[in-house]
Amino acid sequence: MSQGRGSAVVAAVVVVCLLMVLNSEVAQAATYKVGGAGGWAFNVAGWPKGKNFKAGDVLLFSYTKGAHNVVVVNKAGYDSCKAPSNAKVYSSGKDQIKLVKGKNFFICSFPGHCASAMKIAVTAT
């Protein structure tokens, strides 16, 4: 086998291995409907308990459009139920948000909703 062919074979094997790793990571991503059958609603704060989330998993926030929203906040916003002015706000009623590694915090910013436990904190590994 010539030097050029050997290098091409090695490169092809490396590419195939990388594709296999990338595909396995994509295949492992899961979609979770926040709140289960009840969807994004009051008293949903305990919903994440017992679930093992991974970075790349998708949270589906299902609710009646116009009745609620989903706001991505930091820990301070989660604890205070106040969204910073630059926070990302979702309002479609079928919002899909991909988790990042580490802590992820979400609230409904409608008056009184977050205080009624319409917020979740999710840790993704």
Automatic annotation (TrEMBL):
Ranges where the Phytocyanin domain occurs: 30-125
One of the record's GO cellular component terms: plasma membrane
Signal peptide annotation: 1-29
Domain of life: Eukaryota
Keyword Ion transport carried by entry: no
Keyword field: Copper, Disulfide bond, Metal-binding, Signal
Xref: Pfam families: Cu_bind_like (PF02298)
Single GO MF annotation: electron transfer activity
The protein, known as: Basic blue protein
Lineage, top ranks: Eukaryota, Viridiplantae, Streptophyta, Embryophyta, Tracheophyta
InterPro entries xref list: Cupredoxin (IPR008972), Phytocyanin-like (IPR039391), Phytocyanin_dom (IPR003245), Plantacyanin (IPR041844)
